UniProtKB/TrEMBL annotation:
Residues 136-266 form the DUF2520 domain. The keyword Oxidoreductase applies. InterPro entries: 6-PGluconate_DH-like_C_sf, DUF2520, NAD(P)-bd_dom_sf, TM1727-like_C_sf. This is Rossmann-like and DUF2520 domain-containing protein.
């Protein structure tokens, strides 16, 4: 009979509760302790998962084959030290955290260590139980830890991707840009459309298909092939009119600065496209000017 490893979860928030429930339901692990700052929080996690013993982080920890650490990034190292100090991990045990930014090195040298970041929104654990399958899981760590971690995550439908531990902050910046910063950018677009007399609902309806089409083109063909619009055409007068309009909006200095920065970055993509000689020269000169001077 195959040995089912024991699992303990340290910091069982939305991520810990969801993964714990998925693994327990599929009988991939036997859940031991669920550790949170307060026993009440741990009991709520145990109730959701349907297994385990609720404990507070101030109590002594029990031995488990796998420790899943899903507390905030700045507490990962402290959690690993606590597990080591309580001798709660066997010599061949696995220490695992799910941070998108911190590498497995945050776990120290207390055991076989890996970091696996599920690229999934865990806003609602109940919803995540049904929707997790198919999510990408980016991973790095030592070989033995990755072998076990890969088994756990792919068994619940995760798509496994290996990443470079040293460049993990760049990877995390990519995910933030593609999600959080995209919200910021499209929020700006909706607000600017309202300046032209559209209401918020109309602005969203107008911009949604445009944004979706741009995303489809980008992910299917790449930035160079997908970029269109005034900067790609070298239309300096149009870009200048945008900057001028934003400069005269009393409440839009941040929008102006963001537009200017994005225009300069967009120009870099335009330069990789096949352009007639000198087509972008006037645009380059315009965009070298600081926003306050436009």
């Amino acid at each position: 009979m195959t040995h089912i490893p024991t699992l303990a979860i340290y910091g069982a928030g939305k991520v810990g509760k969801t993964l714990g429930r998925l693994w327990v339901d599929r009988k991939l692990v036997s859940l031991a302790d669920v550790v949170c700052q307060s026993r009440d929080s741990a009991q709520q996690a145990v109730a959701f998962i349907g297994a385990g013993t609720a404990r507070s982080s101030s109590e002594s920890l029990h031995l488990a084959d796998i420790w899943l650490i899903t507390c905030p990034d700045d507490s990962i190292e402290q959690a690993a030290k606590k597990i080591a100090a309580d001798a709660a991990l066997p010599n061949n045990g696995l220490l695992l955290h799910c941070s998108g930014n911190s590498s497995s090195q945050a776990l120290g040298t207390f055991g076989s260590a890996a970091s696996v970041h599920p690229v999934h929104s865990f806003a609602n654990p109940e919803t995540s139980l049904a929707q997790f399958s198919g999510s990408y899981c980016t991973a790095e760590g030592d070989e033995a830890a990755l072998k076990l971690a890969k088994h756990l995550f792919t068994a619940i439908g995760g798509q496994w991707l290996a990443i470079n531990a040293a460049a993990k902050p760049c990877y995390h910046a990519a995910t933030v840009t593609a999600s959080n910063h995209l919200v910021t950018l499209l929020d700006q677009a909706v607000r600017l459309a309202q300046k032209a007399g559209l209401n918020e609902a109309q602005s969203r309806a107008l911009l949604k298909p445009l944004a979706q089409n741009a995303l489809d083109n980008l992910f299917n063909h790449g930035g160079r092939a997908s970029l269109t619009g005034p900067i790609s055409r070298g239309d300096t007068e149009t870009v200048a009119s945008h900057l001028g309009a934003l400069a005269h909006l009393s409440d839009a200095s941040q929008d102006r600065d963001l537009y200017h920065a994005l225009a300069r970055a967009t120009l870099d993509i335009a330069e990789t496209q096949a352009q007639p000689p000198g087509r972008l020269s006037a645009l380059k000169a315009l965009l070298r000017i600081k926003p306050a001077q436009t």
